[in-house]
Every structure is written in structure tokens, then in C-alpha cells.
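hey so u asked for the seq, here:
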Amino acid sequence: MSRNPLRGLYVITDSALIPDNQFSNRVAAALRGGARIVQYRDKRDLPAMRLKLATDMVYLCREHGALSIINDDIELAASIGADGVHIGKDDADLGRVRERLGQGAIIGASCYNRLDLALEAEKRGADYVAFGAFFPSQIKPDAVPATLELLGMARQKLHVPICAIGGITAENAAPLVTAGADMLAVISDVFAAPDIEAACRRFAPWFV
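ran it, C-alpha cells below
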């Protein structure tokens, strides 16, 4: 599995924003624009379609030297050779995920606005942690708010890379990177944009 640095623009797919027949084209556009990590996030109960789209994503990520992450589906990640998975606090146990996917897999953990969850995730072997939402999110309007102060504390106490998520745009990204975010996870500001490649390129200055 690829061990690209966990840094840069981290795009997350959304079935409400990306028609299935445009999935590969739009993911490819994000990768051309500089996305370094792509997470396949799809809560629909459509196993065959999920398998196809996730497999396409893994292929495209390999082609562009980027990382492929599956949201909360360990078996899907294992079956298609994705680089790893992202799990929340109510998803699969991190230790079990590591046992199933192996030491080479990348495991990310959602920690919301809680440093204690992040410290525990790091202790249990997470490769990165994610905090958020830092701004109002159209995708998750009820997400708990996280602060720049949390990012600063996390940067001092954690040794794993940190991902910021929640309502992030190219316009509000700077303070997050300054406060300690290694990755910016973006959904709407990329996949709702009329020009996905150009939307991704707007984040490039924060990861020179």
C-alpha cells in the first residue's frame, strides 16, 4: 500500500453531489487539481454500485500517486486494495480494523471536538486524526463545532497528522493550516464547484 505523506488537500466524495455516471470524471478532475487523498463516502445500500465506484477511485488514486481511503467499510477497503479506512467513534474498533487490514493500512479516526478521543486513537494506532466541524457544514449541519484553539493544543500533544473538516473553503483555509492542520478535508467546495480541478488548485498555496 502507498505511504504518501498525510498532508495536503483531502477530498471526500458525496453521492448527493456526484452522479454515479460522472463519478470517475469528477474524482479524476480533483486529482488533476492536486488532491492528495480521496475518501469514498457513500451511505447508500447499493453494494454493487459502491464496489464499482470505490474500485474506480482506487485505480484513479494509484494513477495519480494519491491515497485512497474508504469511509467506514473495512471489508470494501480490503476487497479492493484501498490504502485505508476512516472510522468514527461509533464505527468499528480501531484494533480490529488494524488486525483486518494489516500494518500497512492507513487508519484515520474522527475525533470531532475532543482531544481525548484523538489521544486515545493515537495510542491505539491511528495514522491520523480528524477534528471538526470548524465552519458550518451543508453536509453535516448538526456537526459539533471545533475551534482553532483545539487544533493548537492537538498540534502540541499529538505526533500523528491532523485533518481539519467541516465547511472548509479556499477562503477560510489559512487559519486552519496555521493552527496545525496537516490536511484539509473538503466536500462541497470541491465537488459542488462548476470546475472541480480549478477548485482544488485554489488550495495549493496552503501546502507549498
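Strands lie at 8-12, 37-40, 67-71, 84-87, 106-112, 128-131, 162-165, 183-186. The CA atoms of residues 122 and 130 lie 11 Å apart.
lmk if thats what u needed
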